[in-house]
């Protein structure tokens, strides 16, 4: 495995995805901030959540890039369209299974069943993350397609 | 925080409304909703039935949103750019953009409500069980903030209440003060003088800084002073009349024809046309405010960036002071030379020269500025003085009066006790009298001879301040002030104007300008009181705290 390519393009793809998510937020397509969501897993200190979240996001991106690379290996080698396809599948998984399970995974997230408590105060994303805005699924889908597309186009691990 | 008690034949309840605040340390270490309005209903006696209607109408009521009932997560609507949520223990029934609930509140019971607005998700949801501690934190925060008040005179309650209003109109992230939180509350019921005041007027700068510094709230005054210099950077050396809290130019004015207005006072406007106006007084206001802060902080040298900005304002005044403008009252129909604008142009150069003389401002073109300053003074003294009426007039060569002429004493253009100021005050009292201590800002009558608007709140306080500064006796100043304070509503708040007949509030509410005037007048009265005390008994003052 070409570790340098994985590290570099994994980070680039994650940054590309993050940039798109921030643009989506700026264009008011979604309210979702992934750094806040991930950062609050690690700390309840408001001033640190985004920094921690950004670090976790990059780490997460690198780990997921490895999964993409393995998938490329078994599916005939990397290409932009295969990357985009895997990205779309990944997004659908995140939007359905991932988001629905988030209250079980996130230590500070409330559930629709029991509501907010002193320990769990964050609004859960709900099915397709629709609680964070009606166009959130589109934003997540596009950003994951870009993530996969970058990896498929450039990563030669 | 507002407490209202409702009494019915079956019992009574107390409604407590507040927006929670907490220290930065607390906010950094805890997850709390970003923007939250809390209402707590406490049963006091017997039982009272309450009906709750949740009918959000975002975008100036052009949208009737679908309310989603998220069960334990509360009710929610999407209101771009964010979402609004209502959280309470009640069960709601939904009907076409409205959620309704009823409850019977018994003595000793508490029903909490939390309304939140979020722009970033995952949002922090309120925990209803902890709203009591939010209430306690909020009380402690405000009590601590209130401790800064350095006013020690007899009008402490009115001054601290006014400072509180100003704090609530202060946008902490940028330092801006907005004029009012409302738009289009009419200056005359049924009239069309309905404007959007949810912006920050540079015109208020020096008066607000003076009031906040004088009352001991230095941090807010400093933040505003910095805002006036830095948020306006994109348009410097030209200054716009108003900006939004971030320093963006105010939005263009438009009318919302679908809204009937307050008591059918149409049109309802958002945005403000005055953004396009030229008002030459604002340069003097900004420079005077900065000079005041500079003096109070005892800074030996102005930082280069601020110095450059101030001198560029001075040059702008030097080149443009003779040009007609819309004036402080933002006349929409004509441009003219205004005595008040000329006065503030004089103030701008006088303050800059003062700072240059003290050595705190370098590179001031002293000779040029001195020449123009003297020229403006000569112009005001000759063209704006009406010998036949023995008073200044609001526009050169006219007989019109305007309450801003009282500010000549405030800005040290003349001693308040000078013959010219006394003559001006006498005529102003007669021409702009609105009954008692109330004054119109100027006299503009409708076709039937009735005034087109109410008495202008701050103008009455300017008169009290003028009297305290030497234009009258301390007793006259105090009686004027006390009468004016009596026009406040039940919780001590003022609108822009006061209806002379009904004593009710007119115009946008609560209005920063009126409360700034109240504090400033109270400070002047206190200064006068101490001076007189010192004259009567020089030793006694040494035992009093400094104001």
How would you summarize this macromolecular structure in one to three sentences?
Chain A is mostly helical and 157 residues long. Chain A has helices at 3-26, 34-42, 46-74, 80-105, 136-154. The longest helix of chain A is centred in the middle third of the chain and has 29 residues, at 46-74.
Q: Can you give a write-up of this model?
A:
The complex is a heterodimer of chains A (157) and B (547). Chain A is mostly helical and 157 residues long. Chain A has one domain. Chain A contains five helices and no strands. Chain A has helices at 3-26, 34-42, 46-74, 80-105, 136-154. In chain A, helix 1 (3-26) runs antiparallel to helix 5 and helix 2 (34-42) packs across helix 3. The longest helix of chain A has 29 residues, at 46-74. Chain B is of the alpha+beta class. Chain B has a domain at 2-144. In chain B, strands 1, 2, 3, 4, 5, 6, 7, 8 and 9 form a nine-stranded antiparallel β-sheet that branches. Chain B has a three-stranded antiparallel β-sheet with strand order 18-19-20. Chain B is globular. The model of chain B has no long low-confidence stretch (mean pLDDT 93). The A-B interface holds A 25, 28, 30-33, 36-37, 40, 44-47, 108-118, 121-125, 131-134 and B 27-31, 70-73, 76, 78, 80-83, 87, 118-127, 129-130.
Which chain pair shows the most residues in contact?
A-B, 33 and 28 residues
Instruction: Give start-end ranges of low-pLDDT stretches of chain A.
Output: none
Question: Pairing-aware structural class of the strands and helices of chain B?
Answer: alpha+beta
Give the tally of structural domains of chain A: 1
Number of contiguous helices of chain A: 5
Described by strand count, sense and barrel closure, the largest sheet of chain A is:
none
Number of strands of chain A: 0
């Amino acid at each position: 495995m070409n570790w340098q390519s994985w590290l570099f393009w994994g980070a680039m793809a994650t940054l590309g995805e993050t940039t798109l998510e921030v643009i989506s937020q700026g264009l008011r397509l979604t309210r979702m901030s992934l750094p806040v969501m991930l950062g609050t897993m690690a700390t309840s200190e408001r001033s640190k959540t985004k920094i921690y979240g950004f670090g976790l996001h990059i780490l997460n991106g690198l780990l997921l890039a490895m999964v993409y690379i393995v998938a490329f290996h078994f599916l005939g080698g990397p290409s932009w369209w295969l990357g985009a396809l895997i990205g779309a599948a990944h997004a659908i998984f995140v939007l359905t299974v991932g988001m629905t399970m988030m209250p079980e995974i996130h230590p500070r997230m409330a559930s629709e069943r029991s509501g907010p408590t002193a320990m769990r105060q964050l609004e859960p994303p709900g099915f397709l993350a629709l609680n964070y805005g009606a166009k959130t699924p589109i934003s997540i889908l596009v950003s994951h397609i870009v993530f996969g597309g970058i990896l498929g186009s450039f990563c030669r691990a | 925080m507002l407490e209202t008690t409702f009494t019915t034949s079956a019992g009574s309840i107390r409604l407590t409304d507040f927006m929670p605040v907490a220290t930065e340390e607390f906010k950094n270490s805890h997850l709390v909703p970003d923007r939250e309005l809390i209402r707590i209903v406490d049963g006091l006696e017997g039982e009272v039935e309450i009906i709750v209607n949740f009918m959000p109408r975002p975008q100036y009521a052009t949208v009737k949103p679908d309310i989603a009932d998220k069960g334990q997560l509360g009710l929610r609507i999407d209101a771009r750019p964010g979402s609004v949520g209502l959280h309470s223990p009640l069960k709601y029934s939904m009907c076409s953009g409205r959620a309704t609930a009823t409850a019977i509140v018994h003595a000793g019971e508490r029903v909490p409500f939390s309304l939140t607005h979020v722009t970033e998700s995952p949002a922090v949801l309120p925990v209803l069980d902890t709203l009591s501690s939010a209430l306690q934190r909020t009380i402690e925060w405000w009590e601590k903030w209130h401790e800064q008040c350095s006013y020690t005179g007899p009008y402490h309650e009115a001054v601290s209440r006014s400072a509180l209003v100003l704090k609530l109109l202060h946008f902490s992230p940028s330092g801006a003060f907005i004029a009012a939180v409302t738009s289009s509350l009419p200056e005359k019921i049924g009239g069309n003088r309905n404007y959007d005041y949810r912006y920050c007027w540079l015109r208020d700068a020096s008066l607000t800084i003076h009031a906040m510094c004088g009352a001991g709230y230095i941090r807010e005054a400093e933040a505003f002073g910095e805002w006036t210099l830095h948020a306006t950077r994109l348009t410097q050396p030209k200054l716009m009349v108003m900006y939004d809290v971030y320093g963006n130019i105010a939005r263009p004015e438009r009318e919302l024809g679908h809204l009937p207005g307050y008591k059918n006072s149409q049109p309802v406007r958002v945005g403000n046309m005055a953004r396009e106006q030229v008002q030459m007084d604002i340069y003097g206001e900004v420079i005077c405010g900065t000079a005041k802060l500079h003096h109070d902080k005892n800074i030996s040298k102005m930082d280069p960036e601020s110095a450059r900005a101030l001198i560029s304002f001075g040059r702008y005044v030097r080149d443009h002071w003779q040009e007609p403008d819309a004036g402080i009252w933002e006349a929409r129909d004509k441009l003219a030379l205004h005595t008040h604008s000329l006065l503030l142009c004089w103030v701008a150069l006088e303050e800059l020269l003062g700072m240059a003389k003290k050595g705190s401002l370098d590179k001031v073109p002293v000779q040029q500025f001195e020449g123009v300053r003297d020229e403006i003074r000569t112009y005001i003294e000759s063209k704006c003085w009406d010998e036949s009426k023995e008073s200044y007039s609001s526009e050169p060569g006219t007989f019109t009066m305007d309450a801003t002429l009282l500010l000549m004493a405030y800005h040290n253009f003349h001693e308040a006790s000078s013959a010219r100021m006394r003559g001006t005050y006498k005529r102003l009292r007669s021409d702009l009298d609105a009954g008692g201590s109330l004054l119109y800002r100027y006299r503009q009558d409708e076709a039937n001879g009735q005034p087109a608007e109410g008495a202008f709140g701050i103008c009455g306080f300017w008169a009290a301040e003028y009297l305290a500064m030497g234009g009258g006796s301390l007793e006259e100043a105090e009686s004027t002030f006390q009468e004016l304070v009596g026009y406040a509503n039940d919780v001590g708040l003022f609108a822009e104007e006061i209806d002379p007949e009904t004593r009710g509030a007119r115009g946008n509410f609560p209005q920063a300008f009126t409360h700034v005037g109240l504090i400033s007048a109270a400070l002047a009265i206190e200064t006068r009181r101490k001076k007189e005390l010192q004259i009567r008994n020089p030793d006694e003052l040494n035992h009093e705290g400094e104001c």
